[in-house]
Specification:
Blueprint (H helix, E strand, L loop, with lengths): L2 H7 L5 H10 L2 E6 L1 H8 L30 H6 L2 E7 L8 H21 L4 E3 L3 H9 L3 E7 L9 H9 L2 E5 L30 H13 L2 E3 L5 H10 L4 E3 L16 H10 L2 E4 L3 H4 L4 E2 L3 E2 L3 H15 L4 E3 L19 H10 L4 H28 L17 H8 L3
Parallel strand pairs: 1-2, 2-4, 3-4, 4-5, 5-6, 6-7, 7-8, 8-11
Antiparallel strand pairs: 9-10
Helix pairs in contact: 2-13, 6-14, 7-8, 9-10, 12-13
Family: Belongs to the metallo-dependent hydrolases superfamily. Peptidase M19 family.
Organism: Triparma columacea
Protein name: Dipeptidase
């Protein structure tokens, strides 16, 4: 028997129990890039793809890996109970154009809920997540995947929040200019952090996110940025799709020193399934990736060991890459990981925390910080990064040095 068969067989008897747990506790996945896949593969038109049908065998030329990882039948099979949908735009798009693309991606999530109301509903609060899950549908929440997407404008950030964005990743590859990324725009590792993590405007972004009740996401950021964000925030933070650096030496993963701080902060690390973040980029016989569901569970074990059971979740990153850990190839596979956790002796209650209760708690605690800041009279931040899109006569005179 090969290792892949052994890996799947050892926890197979626990699949029925895993399915029961997913019905009881919402699996709140931290990151899914289906909106960007629809933009690239289907001209951003939901009319071009029927997500109510299993599309496992569909070839999609517009997507680099040429397949979809997500559709409604597979979400249901995998027991997905709530979803943070990434409303991503790459760092190659900047300024007002990037803001527009982000708005279009947010609109696509709203369209998804409108087209399939029996399966999805927009969720704006933690209580919404609980209610929609109890009604048998998938609560849908937007997450902006890069600080560059606000175009240097906290006004844009505030409007994104009104439209249903509940987290923002401070950087994507290359960064926004006010926060140091883990990876450069060309994909190379960013060894230096010239800003020391966050520029002054980056600190203001974190504070404004706290005021709004928007979760500060520090996946994709440099280690210096992780620590700077933890220094600046009043609310719990999240890693929406990252694993642990002790088990996989990738700068996108979280070092133990930060996991310890995450415990103090009350935040969450949501373990990702892309092989390069789980076990590195190596392959075994037949050209298969080296990582398996077992290594994914190992990252959960390690995060629990360092940060504690209350600070671990799941963020698959489906439709955002290729070469997922074996056994975790698409959204239908989550119960395999849950079965592996049962095999390892996790209690029902602890599995419930990892599946989604921890993520809901973080969302709710950020809402509570926003309420407290409102009671304190904290008003909207008027800081801006880079050139304003408009200038008054007074602004022009200041630039020219006119008194």
């Amino acid at each position: 028997m090969d290792s892949e068969a052994q890996n799947s067989d050892r926890a197979r008897e626990h699949i029925p129990k895993a399915i029961e747990l997913h019905a009881k506790y919402p699996l709140f996945d931290g990151h899914n890039d289906l909106p960007w896949a629809i933009r690239n593969g289907f001209d951003m038109r939901l009319s071009n793809i029927d997500l109510s049908v299993d599309q496992t065998d569909l070839v999609v030329p517009g997507i680099p890996w040429r397949i979809l990882h997500t559709d409604i039948p597979r979400l249901r099979k995998g027991g997905v109970g709530a979803q943070f949908w990434s409303v991503y735009a790459p760092t190659t798009i900047t300024g007002a154009e990037c803001v527009q693309v982000t708005l279009e991606q947010i609109d696509l999530v709203h369209q998804l809920c409108d087209k399939y109301p029996g399966h999805f509903e927009m969720a704006y609060t933690a209580e919404d997540v609980r209610r929609i899950f109890a009604e048998g549908r998938i609560p849908s929440v937007c997450g902006v995947e890069g600080g560059h997407q606000i175009g240097g404008s906290l006004r844009a950030l505030r409007m994104f929040h009104k439209l249903g964005v509940r987290y923002m990743t401070l950087t994507h590859n290359g960064g926004p200019g006010w926060a140091d990324p883990a990876v450069n725009q060309d994909g190379s590792f960013a060894h230096e952090a010239p800003l020391g993590g966050l520029a002054p405007f980056g600190v203001e972004v974190v504070k404004e996110m706290n005021r709004l009740g928007m979760i500060v996401d520090i996946s994709h950021v440099h280690e210096e940025t992780m620590n700077a964000a933890l220094d600046a925030t009043r609310a719990p933070v999240m890693f929406s799709h990252s694993s642990t650096r002790a088990l996989c030496a990738h700068p996108r993963d979280v070092p133990d020193s930060v996991l310890l701080r995450l415990k103090e902060n009350g935040g969450i690390v949501m373990v990702v399934f892309l092989s390069k973040f789980v076990a590195g980029e190596f392959w075994v016989s037949g050209g298969k990736v080296g990582a398996t569901v077992i290594e994914c569970a190992d990252h959960i074990d390690h995060a629990v060991k360092i940060a504690g059971i209350d600070h671990v979740g799941i963020g698959g990153d489906y439709d955002g890459g290729s070469l997922f850990a074996r056994g975790m190839e698409d959204v239908s596979t989550y119960t395999k990981l849950t079965a592996e956790l049962i095999y390892r002796g996790y209690s029902d209650e602890d599995i419930g925390k990892v599946l989604g209760l921890n993520a809901i708690r973080v969302m709710e605690e950020c809402e509570n910080v926003a309420k407290k800041m409102k009671e304190e009279g904290v008003l909207a931040n008027e800081a801006h990064y880079g050139d304003e899109l408009y200038e008054t006569n007074i602004m022009k005179e200041k630039k020219m040095g006119v008194n």
